[in-house]
Design goal:
The strands form four sheets. The protein has a five-stranded antiparallel sheet. A four-stranded antiparallel sheet has the order 11-12-13-14. The chain is α+β, with helices and mostly antiparallel strands. Strand 8 and strand 9 (about 155) form a beta hairpin. It folds into three domains: about 5-50, Uridine Diphospho-n-acetylenolpyruvylglucosamine Reductase, domain 2; about 55-170, Uridine Diphospho-n-acetylenolpyruvylglucosamine Reductase, domain 3, CATH 3.30.465.10; about 175-285, 2-Layer Sandwich (Enolase-like, domain 1), CATH 3.30.390. It has helices at about 10-20, 35-40, 75-80, 85-90, 90-95, 100-105, 110-115, 125-130, 230-235, 240-255, 265-285, and strands at about 5, 25-30, 50, 60-65, 65-70, 135-140, 140-145, 150-155, 155, 165-170, 175-185, 195-205, 210-220, 225. About 35% of the residues lie in helices and about 25% in strands.
Length: about 300
């Protein structure tokens, strides 16, 4: 591993100052579970690593009537360890439970997962479907970006030199809503999704019809992919098998996967349809207050 300087600021202002001073040659470290590996392999060559774990604003985890605030450095175990968050923002905790093992989850953060900007990231589809807003701060001040617009390419995002993802804000969940995230992996030893799907639905008061839905897909495009056409196709429709098949068919038409060691493009297209149906069904079941049966890690 190449040599680099290490900084551990305790305030947001100091962290931004260090990042800005180094003009793109500094990298924030939240959990470090991806960053350190990238540096070791030579994919990244930072001159300075800026540890942001000691900054209060990046460790916030606050749930109230207005919604959820999630600091960018908050570790995964704190998120799924909160019963209220697990109930209201279930897709998010589904994702946090499968990002590595418990040792990784004690360090890794949703903010770091998004900033790594991998197309197969497990948390990004969940953040998108739950309406997450990325709060960014830098030398030019604070700005907000919808989660579906944050990633711009494999390993690339909207952050400018000197900027830092501070937190992700989620709106309060509406009545009769449910969400779910699920992925398919080729085997337990390869912990990267062949396809991942996140979905959030809102049902009417009868809980028999879909008022609205948001679906996002992972590992089927250069970035995690928000597919509003799926929600448009099933809004106002009965929450039944025919509607879910329609959703799966629409999703299959929107993906542009590649063939790699984890699966062929054709296989990914097929999985997109299957998982979209299953994840929407699970989200509907949760909106109805029903338990779902899913194995963590799949």
């Amino acid at each position: 591993m190449r040599d680099f300087e290490y900084e551990a600021p305790t305030t947001l202002a100091n962290a931004i100052a260090v990042l800005a001073k180094n003009n793109g040659s500094a990298r924030p470290l939240a959990g470090g579970t991806d960053l350190i590996d990238h540096v070791r392999c030579g994919r990244l060559e930072p001159d300075v690593v800026v540890d942001v774990k000691k900054i209060d604003e990046l460790n916030v985890l606050e749930l109230n009537d207005s919604g959820l605030r999630l600091g960018a450095a908050t570790p995964c175990y704190r998120i799924y360890g909160c019963p209220e968050i697990s109930q209201q923002y279930a897709a998010l905790t589904d994702s946090c439970r499968i990002i590595g093992g418990i040792q990784i989850q004690s360090r890794a953060s949703v903010g770091g997962n998004i900033c790594n900007s991998g197309p197969a990231a497990d948390s990004t589809p969940s953040v998108i479907v739950l309406g997450g807003i990325c709060v960014i701060e830098g030398p030019g001040g604070r700005r907000e970006v919808p989660a579906e617009e944050f990633c711009t390419g494999p390993g690339k995002n909207v952050l400018k030199p000197g900027e830092l993802l501070v937190e992700i804000k989620f709106p309060a969940r509406p009545a009769n809503s449910g969400s779910h995230y699920r992925r398919f992996i080729p085997r337990n030893e390869m912990d990267i999704a062949v396809v991942g799907v996140g979905a959030s639905v809102v049902l009417d008061d009868s809980k028999e019809n879909i008022v609205s839905a948001r679906v996002a897909l992972g590992a089927v495009a250069p970035t995690p992919l928000y597919v509003p056409a799926v929600g448009d196709a099933i809004a106002g429709q009965p929450a039944n098998e025919d509607t879910l098949r329609k959703a799966g068919a629409v999703a299959k038409e929107l993906v542009t996967p590649i063939t790699d060691m984890r699966g062929t493009a054709e296989y990914r297209v097929h999985l997109t349809g299957v998982l979209t149906e299953r994840v929407l069904q699970a989200a509907i079941s949760r909106a109805r207050g029903e338990a779902i049966c899913t194995k963590i890690g799949h």
